[in-house]
Amino acid sequence: MARRRMIYEGKAKILYEGPEPDTLIQYFKDDATAFNAQKHAVIEGKGVLNNRLSEHFMSGLNAIGVPTHFIRRLNMREQLVRMVEIIPLEVVVRNFAAGSMAKRLGIDEGTALPRPIIEFYLKDDALGDPLVTEEHVIAFGWASQQDVDDMVALALRVNDFVSGVMYGVGIRLVDFKIEIGRVFEGDFQRLIVADEISPDSCRLWDIETNQKLDKDVFRHDIGSLTDAYTEVATRLGVMPRNG
Ligand code: C5P
C-alpha cells in the first residue's frame, strides 16, 4: 500500500491527505508539550484519549448545529476531518481566571469572571503566540470584522455546549482554546471549529475538589496526565476505566 502523504506535523497531531477531496486524516500523537515546546514528553495513550474526547465534543457540536471539521473517527488514533483554511489565531474563552490571564492581570486563580472573556493569540511559535487585540486582527488582515464577529459567536456557542456537558459530569470548564477555519461553499465562506477540543486545550477542574484534570497536570508536574484524562473520559462515558 502506498504511504499516505503527510500534509503537516504539529506538536501533538499529524495531518495526512484524506481519502476524499477536501478531507484530511488527523492523527493524534502521544507527545505532550508545554511552554512553547520547551517541555516535552511522550505519554503513552494520550493520543488515543484525545482522539476519543475530541470526537465526543466535536460530534456533539455538529449535532446541535455548531459546525466543526469533524466527520468521523476512523480508528484509535485517527479521525476524518474537513480540510479548512486555518485562521492563524488561537481563540481562547475564559469563564474563570487561570493561567496567563490570572498572571497578567494579577487575579486569583479560580475567580469567576463577570462574563466569558474571549481573547485572540497570534499563532506564531517564534513569537510565543502573543496576545493580540481585535484591532491587530483586522488591521493586519488575519481576519475581517465579519470573521471576528463570527469567531466570537462560534466560540461562545462552543463554550456553552462544552461547559454544559462538563458540568453534567461534575467538571468546571475554566477556559479553553479553539482554532477556527474557513470552508468555501459556492460563493460563500463559512467559519467552522477545527483542530481539537480535548484536555490538552482546556482547563478542567473537578467542581467539588478543584482537582485539575487537564494539561496543567503535565505543565506543573502535579500527577499523572493519563489518569487525569482517563478520569474525564470515563465520566463522559467515552472510555471504559481500564480500556
Ligand atoms: O496559558 P493560557 O492561560 O493563556 O491558556 C488558556 C487556555 O488555552 C488553556 O485552556 C490552555 O490549555 C489553552 N491553550 C492551548 N494552546 C496554547 C495556549 C493555550 O490549548 N498554545
Please describe the topology of this protein:
Elements: E1 6-9, E2 13-17, E3 23-28, E4 31-34, E5 39-42, H1 46-63, E6 70-73, E7 78-82, E8 85-86, E9 89-96, H2 99-105, E10 112-122, E11 131-132, H3 134-139, H4 145-167, E12 171-185, E13 188-194, E14 202-206, H5 216-219, H6 225-236
Helix pairs in contact: 1-6
The structure holds cytidine-5'-monophosphate (C5P).
Cytidine-5'-monophosphate binds next to strand 9, helix 2, strand 12 and strand 14.
Explain what this protein looks like in three dimensions.
With 243 residues, the chain is an alpha+beta fold. It has two domains: 6-82, Phosphorylase Kinase, domain 1; 85-225, 2-Layer Sandwich (D-amino Acid Aminotransferase, Chain A, domain 1), CATH 3.30.470. The protein has six helices and 14 strands. The strands form three sheets. Strands 8, 9, 10, 11, 12, 13 and 14 form a seven-stranded antiparallel sheet that branches. A five-stranded antiparallel sheet has the order 1-2-3-7-6, covered by helices on one side. Helix 1 runs parallel beside helix 6. The longest helix has 23 residues, at 145-167. The mean pLDDT is 96. It comes from Algicella marina. Keywords: ATP-binding, Ligase, Nucleotide-binding, Purine biosynthesis. Belongs to the SAICAR synthetase family. Its EC number is 6.3.2.6.
